[in-house]
Write a structure and sequence with these properties.
2 copies of one chain form a homodimer. The first copy, chain A, is mostly helical and about 140 residues long. Helices cover about 65% and strands about 10% of the residues of chain A. In chain A, α1 runs antiparallel to α6. Chain A binds a DNA duplex (30 and 30 nucleotides) through α1 and α4.
Chain lengths: ~140, ~140
DNA sequence: TATAATTAAATTGTACACAACTTAATTGCA
DNA sequence: TGCAATTAAGTTGTGTACAATTTAATTATA
């Protein structure tokens, strides 16, 4: 029992979150490689598969990412033919990201990924639900 | 209810882990800025405050990081006077990272950080313990 | 005991993240 | 209405991450 115990790695909550995050993203890699997507590109696609279009700001709000990350990412995705980027005519500050047909097609390939990943993470339904709730609680506290 | 529901962002476990990780690291920033440490440098220091010295491989095992990340990081920390880097004489493949007196001194400043961060994350003792256990369970599954 | 296999770091190249700043468009208010 | 404040993207610079490869040292074995 030392006054430095609070600085032990195994007394942190942040460290396993950080390590899990990287570990899980690494597990996604082989599955996402088949779609030629990175993890960040994949979560952008998730938003667009649902909404078909939204501006950079909305995308950033959904993913907790800013334009410094999204702008270069979206340019790459545009180059790959997954999305289009168009200035809004009603408010020229906004850039509207629109999923292409090509991008929409990827959805059918992606649909098998969550089950494969579920196998990697390997928690019971109850454990997954508990973890989910706690993470969103932390996220709410941290993002406010 | 669509067959694409599994691709919704709010049906993922990975996304809140990823978002939490980035959100928490961002919360650390003002505290770590006072010590002139990044988050990754901070967790390296955590290992060294405990062990005083270890090689790059051991550090990587503890933090789930490889030499591609650690080598440049450790060179920066050496330049700041926090650690020394020495080839082992018994096995010249190993580089031994040793915390300096300067680095050891930082521990007294760092000791207040965990409590401050606890306030940000703001979970009950039970919630924190549950979250901790589930994260290490996921981590074990993901890293094997 | 030479050499093949393994191991530990380092290097190279790519892809985020994000702070801080810039630019251009829109809003709000004196 | 005109200008200050705000807002949305984009840009710049720094710092991780990590895959893939290279280099050098050690170990194992034919």
């Amino acid at each position: 029992m030392s006054k430095y115990d609070c600085l032990r790695l195994d007394h942190q909550l942040c460290f396993p979150i950080y390590a899990c995050s990287r570990g899980i993203v690494k597990k996604y890699k082989p599955f996402l490689d088949e779609l030629d997507l990175t993890y960040t590109q994949y979560i952008v696609m998730m938003v667009l598969w649902e909404k078909q279009e939204c501006n950079v700001k909305e995308l950033g709000n959904a993913l907790f990412l800013d334009s410094g990350t999204l702008t270069p990412l979206l340019k790459k995705m545009e180059a790959k033919g997954l999305v289009s980027r168009t200035r809004s005519t009603t408010d020229e500050r906004n850039v509207i990201i629109c999923i292409t047909e090509e991008g929409m097609k990827l959805r059918d390939q992606a649909v098998t990924i969550p089950a494969k990943m579920g196998g990697c993470v390997d928690l019971s339904k109850d454990e997954a639900k508990t973890l989910y709730k706690l993470l969103y609680k932390v996220l709410a506290n941290v993002e406010k």
